[in-house]
Amino acid sequence: MAWYPGAVKMELQPESDAQAAIRPTQFIVHSIVGPWTARRTYEYWRDSTNLESHFGIGYAGDIAQYIGTETRADANAAANRRADGTGAISVETASNLTATDPWTVEQVEELIKVGVWAHQRHGIPLRLCRSAADPGFGWHKMHDAWNPAAHSCPGPARIEQFKKVVFPGIVARASGQSSEENDVTEEQMDRIADKVVERLLSKDAFDAPADASDYSDDPKSPHHYWSGRTLFRDLVTKVRRIDKTLTELTLPKK
User: What average pLDDT does range 111-129 have in this prediction?
Assistant: First the structure.
């Protein structure tokens, strides 16, 4: 069994010893639909159900581990343990009663840290799962095989957070660079440039002077345009430069 050193160990028995071993290849996040601490989640798994997750994270960033990550936990349906012995690590997180709130800053930080550990300890690849059995990172709603009840776990706000904040944070902290699967393509760059230009033009932008230091003659580049703010900044810079020069010229010679 593997235990994450950053979590408080609250081992569930008999599940921890009785359930089958797995080789973890996936990391799946959940919302527990309750504003619970990590300890309260443990008590729920212990006293009220025969289901469980590997980890629980409270709003304040308190994190506990209930089952070793090389033992099956029952929060992910078909991803709990597959016929080949692979399975998913599950992380439950405190939420409001409708699972519509975003993760707190503290929860995001703990998700990133435990995600990095899962990558380093178990070799879970730094990519989003491309199918229900594909190794990587994901959220409960991501694949039907993980979520046969078809609910929205961990909730739309948290899914967006996972894609835009949590998973990029795991990748950055684990490797110092983005994963191959999440590199920006040329097509995406073109779309981003189009959006930048569209936004600039919506704010009364105009063609930049061709002698501007970062001028681009490409109409899709943001450096092809100036806004009122850019013009003002340029004028202030020039006036300050002129003032400095005049001051130096008029100072008495020593």
Answer: 97
